[in-house]
Every structure is written in structure tokens, then in C-alpha cells.
Amino acid sequence: MRIKLLDLFNVTRIFQVMTSMDKAAIVFSIAIALVGVGIAAVGDSVDYSPTTTPSVSTPISESETSSGAFGAELSAKIRAEAEAGNSVSADSLQDRQAAADKAAAQAAADKAAAQAAADKAAAQAAADKAAAQAAATDAAADKAAAQAAADKAAAQAAADKAAAQAAADKAAAQAAADKAAAQAAADKAAAQAAADKAAAQAAADAAPKTVIVDIPIGTAVPGCETTNACFSPAMVSINAGDTVEWANIDTAAHTVTGGSPAMGPSGVFDSSLLMASANYAFTFDEAGSYDYFCMVHPWMVGSVSVN
User: Fold this and answer.
1) What is the DSSP string of 223-279?
2) Is 98 helix (H, G, I), strand (E, B) or coil?
3) Taking Cα atoms as reference points, which of 209, 275, 262 lies closest to residue 236?
4) 270 neighbors 282 (Cβ within 8 angstroms)
5) What's the burial of 257, exposed, middle or buried (CB within 10 Å: 0-12/13-18/19+)?
6) Which one-letter DSSP state was computed for residue 61?
7) What is the pTM of this model?
């Protein structure tokens, strides 16, 4: 019988694995290994060539004897090593179990610690979020309060401005009213003054007045008639009731006689001979036009218009 190298290698690997098992597992594994070896030996010893005469018995060859010896030796070795390492394997299994339990406990503790850390982190995050939310709420409240204060201040400022504007408008209106009243008073005073002046002028105009007419020097010599300067002024306009007074400032005597040189005296007024520096006055009560002349010097003529 031939034993393949691969089968031997598998047996060796099985032996190495069995060193880490307990006693029952080792025995079971050895049994399985022996059965496998026996099956392999039987398979190798079968002759598949055709025969005509069956054999009653088959002698055992040297190879078969060697295979049986090798299996017995291998089984004995495995049994001895298993019995020798049984106590070591038990202790090792207990140590490994303790280590596994310790590792499991450590893993559980680590997991619990990680869970606790996660819970703590979640709680801290929730607290931080709540604090941030509270801070945001406080900030919003502060902002709303600030806005309300700003709105109130703006409203107060607007009210103050409106009140100031109203006061300014009222003051301006009062000033305008005072100015208008002062202007009205001034206008009234001016009107009164004008009226008074007009009345005074009217009174002055209505009152009888006296107009002076001079008899200039040199009029006793012809020539003044060319410039109508024999009486100054030669033509006088007065109102009824006014008086004309002639003053002889010439050195010669003259007359002031109503009428004309051509028609002669009218008989309305006549000064007779008026010596130098002498005056003559006549009041005209009736409206009309009155010519006069000097009877001594007939080239001397004048007129009075009475309104």
C-alpha cells in the first residue's frame, strides 16, 4: 500500500490543530484520521485489473505491513502528545477563556464608556443647542426692545418736531399778524396825516390869501411892455375872496386902475396915484377876469383871474 504525501501532510496539519483542542475532541479527531488512513490504504491495495480466478486469500505485502506500522506509530504518538498536553490545554483554555471574558468585559466596558461619552456629548450638544436657542431668543428680545425704544424715540422726536413746527408757525403767524397790525396802524396814521394835510391844505386854500404884485423899478420908461414885465407878475390867478396887494418899488409914482388903455377905467378898482414905496390892496369877491393898467404910464398893463 502506498500513502500519498498529501495525506501525510493533512495528518500533520490535523495533529497541529488537535493540540489546541480538549481531550474528547482530540480522540475524535484521531479516530477520524485513522479511518481516513485505512480507507486510503485499502484504496491503494485494490487491484483493478481483470482476473479469471478469484483468490481465496491474498498475502500481505511489505508495503501494507509498513503502512500499518506507520499508522500505529502515528496513533501512539498522537495519543501520547494528547495525554501530555491535555493538562496544558485545559489550563490554556481556562486562561484563554479568562482572557476572552476579560476582553469581552473590557469591550463591554469600552462600549459602555463610548455610549456614556456619546450620551454625554449628545447631552452637551443638546445643552449647547438650548443655550444657543436661549441666547438667540434673548438677542431677539433685546433687538425687539431696542427697536421699540428706537421707534418710541423716533415718535417722540417726530412729536417734538411737530410741536416745534406748530410753535414756530404760531409765532410766525403772530409776527405776521403783529406786522400786519403795525402796517395797518402805520397806514392809518399815514392816511390820517394825509387827510390832515389835505384838510389843512383845503383849509389853507379855502382861507382868503393875499398875493403880492410888484411894480418894478424902471417901469416908468417904455420898454417893459415888450417882455410883459411892467407888473410882476403881470398875470395873477386867485380864488374869490382873495386879495391882491400891489407894492410900488419904483422911484416914480404909478396907478393901479381897473380897465384898459383903450377902453379907459372900468370903475371896479383904482388906487389913484401910488407914490414910491407905497402899497395898494383890493379884495376880489366875485369870480371873473379883471384887466388893469397905469393911467400915468399906459404901456403898463396886467390882469387878475378870479376863480
Assistant:
1) TGGGGT-SSBSSEEEE-TT-EEEEEE-SSS-B--EEEETTTEEEEEEE--SB-TT-E
2) helix
3) 209
4) no
5) buried
6) P
7) 0.39
Q: How many CA atoms lie within 13 A of 173 on its CB side?
A: 6
CA distance 171 to 174: 5
Quote the crossing angle between the two packed helices 5-18 and 23-45, to the nearest 10°: 170
Mean pLDDT of 270-274: 96
Task: Say how many C-beta atoms besides its own lie within 10 A of residue 36's C-beta.
Answer: 14
CB atoms < 10 A from the CB of 224, how many?
A: 19
Helical axes 86-206 vs 23-45, angle rounded to 10°: 110
Which domains, and CATH codes, for the chain? 210-306 (2.60.40.420)
Cα Rg, the chain, nearest whole Å: 84
Q: Does 163 have pLDDT greater than 90?
A: yes
Please check whether residue 211 is in contact with residue 178, taking contact to mean a CB–CB distance below 8 angstroms. no
For residue 83, the surrounding DSSP H or E stretch is helix 62-84
- As a whole-number percent, the residues of the chain with pLDDT over 90 amount to 62
Alpha-carbon span 34 to 29, nearest angstrom: 9
Beta-bridged to residue 247, according to DSSP, are: 214, 279
Preceding peptide of 233 cis, ω within 30°: yes
Distance CA(251)–CA(83), nearest Å, equals: 199
- Please determine, for residue 4, whether its predicted confidence score (pLDDT) is greater than 60: no
Q: All 3 cell numbers of residue 179?
A: 406786522
Residue with C-alpha cell 379884495?
283
Nearest to 215 by CA among 234, 231, 233, 236: 231
For residue 242, how far is the Cα from the chain centroid?
A: 87
CB 294 within 8 A of CB 303: no
Cell 483493478 locates to 48
